[in-house]
Automatic annotation (TrEMBL):
<keyword id="KW-0175">Coiled coil</keyword>
<dbReference type="GO" id="GO:0016884">
    <property type="term" value="F:carbon-nitrogen ligase activity, with glutamine as amido-N-donor"/>
</dbReference>
<dbReference type="InterPro" id="IPR042184">
    <property type="entry name" value="YqeY/Aim41_N"/>
</dbReference>
<dbReference type="InterPro" id="IPR019004">
    <property type="entry name" value="YqeY/Aim41"/>
</dbReference>
<feature type="coiled-coil region">
    <location>
        <begin position="4"/>
        <end position="70"/>
    </location>
</feature>
<dbReference type="InterPro" id="IPR023168">
    <property type="entry name" value="GatB_Yqey_C_2"/>
</dbReference>
<dbReference type="Pfam" id="PF09424">
    <property type="entry name" value="YqeY"/>
</dbReference>
<protein>
    <submittedName>
        <fullName>Transamidase GatB domain protein</fullName>
    </submittedName>
</protein>
<dbReference type="InterPro" id="IPR003789">
    <property type="entry name" value="Asn/Gln_tRNA_amidoTrase-B-like"/>
</dbReference>
């Protein structure tokens, strides 16, 4: 079952349970998934679905930060709820240990023993395709920076 079908099924369940907040979040996610499929004129791959889901989560996080800064408790709660629902469909994210293992593999493959700032571009170019959609880019960047120290 694709993520799009899974989201649609969960949306129907939310409608039956009269859970308006969950239904609204799932409706927005489903429309984003369907819009991308329509633009592409074919079904989305799992990676494309995951990219859209992660983008929606990031938007919810940004809205949450803005609402917290503005002191809008109603929007804070709404965005926390939205992020929680979206996270149910997100791919499992890699932890720091898993990312570090992949960084070490990339360094070994490239033959770099003591990485320097000049090597960072090459490292990231080889590393990002391996962790795309599975790890936060900011975390990956920070860990590569730690390895270079």
């Amino acid at each position: 079952m694709s993520k799009t079908q899974e989201v649609q099924k969960e949306m129907v369940e939310a409608m039956k349970a009269k859970d308006a907040q969950r239904k609204e979040t799932l409706t927005l996610l489903l429309s984003a998934l369907k819009a991308k499929a329509k633009d592409k004129r074919e079904d989305l791959t799992e990676e494309e679905e995951n990219t859209i889901i992660l983008k929606e989560i990031k938007q919810a996080e940004e809205s949450l930060a803005g609402a917290e800064k503005a002191g809008r408790e109603d929007l804070v709660e709404m965005n926390r709820s939205r992020k929680k629902v979206l996270s149910e469909f997100a791919p499992k994210q890699m932890d720091e240990a898993e990312i570090m293992a992949i960084i070490k593999e990339v360094l070994q493959k490239l033959g770099i023993e003591k990485p320097t700032a000049q090597d960072k571009g090459t490292i990231m170019k080889n590393l990002m395709p391996l962790v795309k959609g599975k790890a936060d880019g900011g975390l990956v960047n920070r860990l590569v920076g730690e390895v270079m120290k």
